[in-house]
Protein 1
Amino acid sequence: MSLLLAALLALAQDPAPAPLPEEVSAPAPESEGYCTPRRLALLLEELSTKHPDLVRVESLGRSASGLELPVVTLARLEGDSPRSRPAVLLVAAIGPEDLFGTELALALVRQIVSDARREGAVRELLGRVVVHIVPCLNPDLRSQAIAALDSGSLALAPRRVELDCNFPSGWDPVAEAGAGPYPLSEPESRALAEFLVARPNVSACLRLVLPAPEQAVAHSWPDADVQVQGELCGALDAGGLERIERAPGSFLRFAYGERGAFVAALQFPFERGSPLSLPRVSEIPRLARGAVGGVLHVARALPQVELTAPAVASLAPSQWSVDLELHNRGTLPSASARAREVGVVGAPELEVMGARLVAAAALSAGEARSLPVRGARIALPELGGSERLGLRIFLSADAGSDVRIEVRAPRAGSARADARLE
Amino acid sequence: MASPRPFPSLAALALALAPAAPAAVAVQEPRYRSCEELERALDEAAVLEGSRLRRLEHAGLVAAGVRAFEIATPGPIEASQRPTLLVLGGFDGISLAGSEAAAACARALGAPASPLGPEVSVVIVPCAARAALVRYLADQRGDGGDDTPVDLDRDGSVDEDGPEDLDGDGLVLSMLVEDPAGAWVLSDDDRFLVPAGPLDAPRLSLRPEGRDDDGDGRFNEDGPGGVALERSFPLERPAADPSTGALPLSQPAARALADLVLERRVFAVLSLQGSHGQLAGPGGTASIESWAAPDRALYELCVREFRAATSRVQEQPLSRRAARLRDEGGSAQDWFAVVGGALSLELAPWGPRVALAARGAALDARFVRETGSGPRAPLERDLRWRPYLDDVTGGSAFVPWTPHLLGGTRVRIGGWKPWTIENPPAADLPRALAGIERFALSLAEGAPKLELEVRAERDGRIATLRARVRNVGRLPTSLAARSAVRSTGGVTLELALEEGHELLAGRELDTLGTLAGGESSVEREWIVLAPEGSALALRATAPWCNPVRVEVRP
């Protein structure tokens, strides 16, 4: 077993090793163990019917030939809307080079659901964050590939436009023949881009890929992101900014370049079961375990704001100061530097209800620095991974008033704290 | 590239367009018409006897609310299959003069006596960014954005801090705010601004006139205004600028125009917009400017025709960035060239030189103007417009910066008045539009046209064919600059073999490269084994041309 898979397996086993569920070790049979788009849709439907509290299956849209493009949302679906929670998006099977992604994505959906049923930690995680999985962005290609396997003819007709060259960032019609007449000219790429744009809470985007040789590539992405990406991808042995720099018009480049999401291309070495990029059916469970590890690692790293209990002090009649601490429990920052550069997310914000907000300050190294106040709201700085920020807010209200303090960050969820002014 | 055929004499063109002359001066009572009025006028012209103008009922355009007109002289080739010149008026959402110019082109080229031949068609969209133009006409100002709500300052609220007329002069002008982080300082000519250097003070922020409606300490940073269609195209689009759309081609009108260019054989796009007064080729950014370099001879030809048609002064071809004096990614003009493969030109009806010529300068003989050099010399754009401001309008086109106190913040209100530099005063419209319809006609008439010269001999069943392709138009058969998403840009020559024919020598399908205006290809030769008395057919095609087919019976 490669070091990479060992690392991903170790990540998957946090916090405690769990036996693989039956379903993963025996993927659903389909001609030769691979999924047609129709079979995939049926299996996903079955999962969502069986686990309605954890699995939601929706459609991104339809492919060029009219096949559904399913997207699976894994989250505890009670309580807050999934759209207000931090999210990670995994996209599989975009082109011929990652055909295998569908089998892995399906297996990892099953594994995560099974883990959530068995393990409190995974269930708790799915209560805080959302995992979106697109198991097959290119069902037309998959249909063709399965038909090719059945017929023994292993040549796939090239598509005029390559989906992974058809996204906006770095889109290059001068050099890339498969770039398409304009970005998102294909229904599949457009549907995925619109899905991502409509979900500013997605902080990280992932793909499942075959290993590629590492190459140093010059780029001018912000230093802060290069460091965070380096740490994230280092832990997963995944491709990051260098990989997307070499892939103009790719989905991951769009996800980072235009949406400011952190990205990782999770690599899976395997012996091909056919000339197509499909593993042997017997290898799928082993590969799926690695995929689960990678996805859960990123889900745990997602930024998430927390507030400590407020400490109230009286300054004068009906004038109060309230101290509390804001914490990002994830290792990813509340927004990437690129997201701020392209302005796709607003800054975190604190809102006070039940008292008049007079002023606010950030506490750092014994120094208080005033923060801009607009009405009942305070504009907060972005929080780095695991960062803590002391806050002191000055309020005006009658003694005995109940105050609610709420922090909202577009990509790091929200947190609330209540206090009585006394 | 071979020498192009001489441009038809101006006299001939003037004669040809004579019946349309009133249309060229459609502005008999010079005033700006609304999009509704412009389109209604064209609808009325379309029903006149002999008119070649008609509404274009293209499903995508109709669905997106884009009103287009087609001009086609009756002929054997269906209009939608012909090489097409696309004329876009005011696609920048600012240039109302561009819309007037496009309407003038439609009336002139669509008139019953129009010299337009039956081998090309012209599609004209007078108000290509309709919502933005409507807003501009109503407000006498605008940024080219449509009416899609856009959160310009990304604060979660939309259109919450727009401009107002603070000083009650009936105009919403510009405002300078003293700001230690401001990017500007006053230049030596204290009407104009220059970028602030390290020790410059006081530093200024340039904002539209108005108060800080949302109390965030910033002035008028998120007013009404949405996506600028012409800058929402994908090539090097600045994703961080919300006015270019959440995604490239996010607006249905922009996508419908892009699809029209892909569907039809569009050989040229003439965008009537801007305020530089010149003819500009593609190249909103340095990389697209370099990409377009192989076609310099073509752009030189266009500049010659532009000079002849409009009597304007322009020596050399200019890229869009050179004409506009700034870089702009995401332009439709660049996409039309790189992906659409069209000759993509921007013609700005109004500009500093046009403005000077419009009314003539009234310069005081004693007046000595600053030369415009030194560390705080005004920017090039201001230097170009200054003679118009001083010598033609006597300074009245600009409101001097006047101090105001705005809730404790010191501001100055002033700037260019409406109908000065972005669009001409209505009285100057006829001058700004003069000759543009002639230039449009010259483009349409200059479309490349293929002719096949075939010689054939036969000895028994062995037939020998020799053929060359000639481009008898003035424009080349395609751009020389290539891109990977377009198929071959060259002329192809195909021998159509029928049953019983056997090719003994030569290529069934041959690519001949691009042919310049008037150029002939090298001769190609085929040897075919064919039944006696049978016919042989050759077919030549090129991206910008109607295909030609010649059948011989050697």
Protein 2
Amino acid sequence: MLTFEYFLQQLVTGLANGMLITLVAIGYTLVYGIVEMINFAHGDVFMLGAFSSVTTLQALGAQAVKRVANKDQPPIPETYLWLVVALITSMVFCATLNVLIERLAYRRLRRGSRMAPLISAIGVSFILQNVGIYWKGVSPINFPRYIPQIDLVKAFGIDSFVRVTTKDVFVFVVTVPLVIALTLFIQRTKLGKAMRATAQDRDAAQLMGIDINRTIALTFLLGGALAGAAGLVSGLYNNTAGFQMGFSYGLNSFTAAVLGGIGNLNGAMLGGVFIGILGAMSDGYLDARWTPVVIFGTLNLVLIIRPSGILGQDLAERA
Amino acid sequence: MQTDIRMTPGRRSYVEEPADPQQTRNRILQATAFAFVVAYPFLDLLFGWQALLAFIPMMLMITLALGLNIVVGYAGLLDLGYAAFYAIGAYAAAFFTSPNSPLASVLPGSPFAWMQDFWVSMVMAVLVAGCAGAILGAPTLRLRGDYLALVTLGFGEIVPRLVKNLEPWTKGVKGMSPIGRPYLFGCQFGVDPCEILGMKLKLGMIPYYYLTLIVGAISIFAIIRLRNSRLGRAWAAIRDDETAAQGMGINPVTTKLWAFSLGASFSGATGAIFGAYLQTISPDQFEYSTSVIVLCMVILGGTGNIWGVMLGGLLIQSFDRIFAERLTGWVHKAGALTGDPTITAAFNSFDLLKSRLLVFGLCLVLIMNLRPQGILPNRKRRETALTDLPEDDVAPDEAVMIAGATVPTEKPR
Amino acid sequence: MTTSNASGDVVLDVTGLTKRFGGLVAVDSVDFQVRRRQIVSLIGPNGAGKTTFFNMVAGQYEPSAGRVVFDGKSLHGLRPHQITARGIGRTFQNIRLFTNETLLENVLVGMHSRLKSGPLASLLRLPSQRREEGEAREKGMALLHLVKLDQYANEAAGNLPYGMQRRLEMARALASEPQLLLLDEPTAGMNPQETVNMISLIRRVRDEFGVAVLLIEHDMQVVMGLSERVTVLNYGQKIAEGTPLDVQRNDNVIEAYLGRRHKRPGDEEADGGTH
């Protein structure tokens, strides 16, 4: 189990986690870019996405869970269909939830002080956590093992301690297309243009006939959908979900967004991958109990030293 | 035309606010509340309310909220990691007084043995927490409001985790116990019987009650004085408009640093008392949710108004420590009364204690959206705004202006 | 009032002051002087760089080049609050009062740099602090009396109508005991009557407090009626300087305000209509 291979192994885990963090971080960054608010409840939306996925998957195919519980067996073909259904359900659920939250808890506070929406978001975060507790209980739940864990390195006949499993690949297969789709949406479509215009100057955008409320709702919708996808993928990747995962994942993702330069899509990706790797390295070389300290230490250092982040520019300029 | 707006022309006693009936009523209210609080332990004994043990942490939390109000309400800085300073105060005191602390092997017999006294440790806790506030504040206070909130949140997450992880010094998740008790007039707090003037008394937790009360009262006193001082005005100015405040000669960094540091020092004192009262402290008492509950107390009652903060604290704490439990009990009893097993089971599943954070979350959202200024709004924004006044009440003649005639006689327009 | 021309009489001495924002030069090497007890106006079309110039003097912006000497000492690198403490008081173009505080408290905030009591003295209510606080309140009331707002001393500033807010801002700026008062469009949005009153107030403040006044103004009635000297900026550059009459007759100024077409030497009406 030697040093370089161990390092590579942590890198693989870190990259996969980093992609998940990126999905959640994009939600923070999009919302911040447009309404300049930290949507503190975003991590908890992600958590509820994971919960809703569990519910959907359980409802769809309880027996399939048994079939693939033996993790080295390839899944039955219907599983893929169910996964797609669960993915869409979770994305729709989280998108709707996020839009609702914006409408009910943030919209009135848009013009006031910067603190008010943040405090409201903290409140929403507590509410969502309790919803999570009512839904699935206090202790972490097992997530169905739909994705088999087949070591691809071995499958290719290479003998190494490093394992790149089908699970790792699954994370990339879902997250990368989503990120690309979002980027194209923002760059190419009329609605994306409206978002960029609103991010740059809300009043001017309004004067140009852009419906601000709808654009902001759209932003929350997109962020929520990505969080929903991340909820499902993270559940399948880590095989566990709990009501507190929103808080910790949320803060990691927020750190990623800030690190990359909040409001900046590329920054969120860069930051997400960085934080994912940093977390895995800290897990691997220090101890998992130090990882939150490392991440929060990074957040604070970034905020103090370079609050604009690595690619600190507007969403509008760099989307 | 506007005769009803209470304006007393000329120079009056402006040093004191004019006595109006509202104020007299407030004074009476305050005096009654004060008398009740002072007499409470005896009333509790007399009527058997058995809520003394709930009252002590309640008052400590309210004192904590008063300290946070300096930061959030007066200086307008959102601090999401206030519990970290509370932890720092509690652990600082425990370090000096607990037989389990690393200092316990060094201090006794050394010239610093006097530091093991509770009262000394409390002062130390105040100083250490105040310094921690200044140390965190110094690099971060030039950040914008929401970024500052996140830095404090990060700090609030780091401190309990450090406490957990640095086991050799802090005893990790197990926490530190026991902690030195205050000792006064031959009486050790919380240890019966107490011997005062040759009498053996069973006081229970009453000494802690009065200690908390006195510290709380001193805090209120100090905060009112600070609010009405040069520094207090600077806080308000920075909160309202930082650029204008700088233009008035106010150094924003030192002004905020004072708020951070003074606010933190209040939590230092409460932390020390809290530890001695519970006789044990552990990192989970100082987590994020504690910070948010204290923030909730500040916001619910009325940010920036100490009476509002106390009211908010009283509401939230009495819900948290008394009513949530009793309400749950009542609901369960009501369920049992129906006699129907399914209804009983349904009623029994109701547990307010489990959803206390839900209640606080709702509370934050509702206040922000419906009444952001809290139950008792900050200060004197009068209902009758002066906007009914003429645009300019200065007599039209320039000569009159220079002569300095004051009283606006008639209103053009 | 403005008698001596000796250099010791100069309270504000600006040389080569420049501010660039990216490629844009908002203020371009402007030389400028204000003498003690002098009332000087800075005028120019919108976007000429007047407020930028102000913000550099007050320390809000750091100059890209050039220097500001106030009362014989350089202001280089000083933060706005330090500059206020040195003796430059200011008002803002879009009134920036502390709206939740009372009028008296607003003025007391203005005195911040002249008061000394620290937190400890305030906590203990030391005799020195109580004396200082009492005197500050007396002085604050006197200032409110000067701007005729003393009867509203305990009202929240946000409740005042517009014209009164402008006067309160003036009192607040005076509270810092400035030697130089920067007024950014003190009569903006006022009706003619209020404007006349403001003119006399400014003049009276200069006479009673012995301050120098530098004002940005669009209203030519105010500029011509009040100032002893006028400096004109256009596209960041100083294009004219002199007595109000000189400036009114200056070709560059007329051109800057009205464009080349109207250029007619000696046309005194030309300046009146700008706004």
